[in-house]
Design brief:
With 225 residues, the protein is mostly helical. The protein contains nine helices and no strands. The longest helix is centred in the middle third of the chain and has 40 residues.
């Protein structure tokens, strides 16, 4: 179940940020971006639906991870739950910034605002959505660091998965804080800074989905705990 929920998260994120945003958003051009959103309205709305998927999946995923890793370290497992839920709450609220351009562009009052102003407001909302996403990534980064530590110490999952998750967390932290401090520098890091997290999280996802855990070692730790 954890692997399946994780896979849904990865698929939803890839659809939104790898396809929808790249199709509709033209960096630095508010008018073209507004035109793209209106022309691909259904696609943009599907992106919003896809954004709800991680919000729904992360709550049971956090509980499954707690139940799985509490035999390794109960306190760290509780922190994993905390960081997942905080990041999910930010991600959920941030969906409003994603949806706002549709309200502005399709329902904006032309008598109150000029089209250029509505385009600018819509583009600003998308910029806020990007900032909110990076803010959520800070908390997901600490989740990656903690889950990496737990996997490494567990004995019922390969240690290399733990190492990959720690690297993923460090990359998320570097990318997020770079975007806060120097957006131009952060732009040069993309998409390279996202490759290690993609590899680490996909590897953990597929291992959980296909191989599972070493039940014997998990049972021994559970009995000892």
């Amino acid at each position: 179940m954890a692997g399946f929920l994780y896979l849904l998260n990865i698929a939803a994120g890839a659809f939104i940020y790898g396809f929808v945003r790249s199709t509709t958003i033209t960096p630095g051009d508010a008018s073209t971006t507004a035109t793209n959103i209106l022309q691909h309205g259904l696609l943009y709305r599907l992106g919003f639906i896809a954004g709800i998927v991680p919000v729904l999946c992360n709550v049971p995923l956090a509980l499954i991870f707690y139940d799985l890793f509490k035999v390794v370290n109960r306190s760290c497992s509780a922190l994993v739950v905390f960081f997942i839920l905080v990041a999910t709450a930010i991600e959920s609220a941030n969906l409003l910034n994603y949806y706002a351009p549709l309200i502005l562009l399709e329902g904006g009052d032309p008598s109150a605002f000029k089209p250029e102003q509505l385009h600018a407001f819509a583009y600003m909302s998308l910029a806020l959505h990007a900032i909110g996403f990076n803010l959520a990534l800070v908390f997901f980064a600490f989740y990656d660091l903690l889950i990496g530590y737990l996997v490494f110490r567990s004995g019922f999952l390969p240690r290399i998965l733990g190492v990959l998750m720690v690297v993923a967390g460090l990359c998320y932290l570097a990318g997020s804080f770079a975007s806060f401090l120097s957006p131009r520098f952060a732009a040069h890091l993309l998409p390279y800074i996202l490759v290690p997290p993609g590899v680490g999280e996909l590897a953990l996802c597929l291992w959980l989905l296909v191989m599972g855990v070493d039940v014997e070692n998990w049972s021994k730790q559970a009995h000892a705990a």
